[in-house]
Amino acid sequence: MLAEAKRRGASSVSDGYRYGCPSCGESFDRAGMRTHMEWHRTPQALREAAMKQMVSCGVMREHQEMRLGNFPAYLPLVRAALDAGKSLLIQGPAGTGKTSLMAAILFEQLMAGRSCRFVLSGEIFREIRGCYEDKAEASERAVIGQFTEWDLLAIDDMGREGKPSAAVCSVLHEILSKRIGSGAMSAATTNLTLVEIGERYDGAIRSRLAGWVPIVMEGKDWRERL
Ligand SMILES: Nc1ncnc2c1ncn2[C@@H]1O[C@H](COP(=O)(O)OP(=O)(O)OP(=O)(O)O)[C@@H](O)[C@H]1O
Ligand SMILES: [Mg+2]
Ligand SMILES: [Zn+2]
Predict the structure, then answer these.
(1) 194 shares a domain with 171
(2) pLDDT tens digits for 78-120?
(3) 88 shares a domain with 13
(4) Best of 65, 89, 99 to mutate for ligand 1, by most ligand atoms within 8 A of CB?
(5) Could you tell me the pTM of the whole model?
(6) First to last CA, the chain
(7) Does the beta carbon of 214 sit less than 6 angstroms from any atom of ligand 1?
(8) d(CA 88, CA 185)
(9) Does one domain contain both 140 and 209?
(10) Distance from the alpha carbon of residue 120 to the mean position of ligand 2, in angstroms
(11) Is ligand 1 within 6 A of the CB of residue 121?
């Protein structure tokens, strides 16, 4: 009840002014705003906000409810990597839960107040290729900037997009290098091994990803279990 009152910004005194909440845009009088901001710091409010961001940052519906607790076998390794601020390479066959685990990691990072972007690997490559077209909407620099600004960049399904050109690989390499250089965390899922990543992309990208913590997922395809 108290939490709900805070959410509404319930108050008995008013100075006549209305204040806009910087987090959700709702407006309150001064005392109402104070209780409303307290509400934003409650676990329930943080969870709701993180869930909204899961949707807005591109996580697909089937993965939105996934939490680290769904992955007990991988949790110690994942937890150690996250606590050390290390990037993760989530590998394994189809349906073993790679994208789900990455979504769970993203949720946790959002709960910790970090900015996150979830993107299909193919989308990154499309954006990079797009900047070389006539009448391109974004420059190469803008595309690189767009993928380097996030505290966590989650790249889904590396290798599914087919073989990219050397020029495109070099831009991806620059994005990864910039992120590594600034200490930002990344995560990627793939069906490929590191050797196959070297063949699909190039040795420089393989070498970057070899420095990430490998999480190798195995077991039966979840899609056949459900
Ligand atoms: N730990 C889990 N508990 C319950 N359901 C799960 C779990 N992991 C994955 N699933 C479910 O299994 C399905 C497949 O998982 P997911 O998409 O994460 O697999 P994937 O390894 O990324 O597959 P692909 O290689 O095809 O991309 C999803 O619908 C997901 O909700
Ligand atoms: Mg997947
Ligand atoms: Zn608010």
Answers:
(1) yes
(2) 999 999 999 999 999 999 999 999 999 999 999 998 999 999 9
(3) no
(4) 99
(5) 0.89
(6) 37
(7) no
(8) 8
(9) yes
(10) 9
(11) no
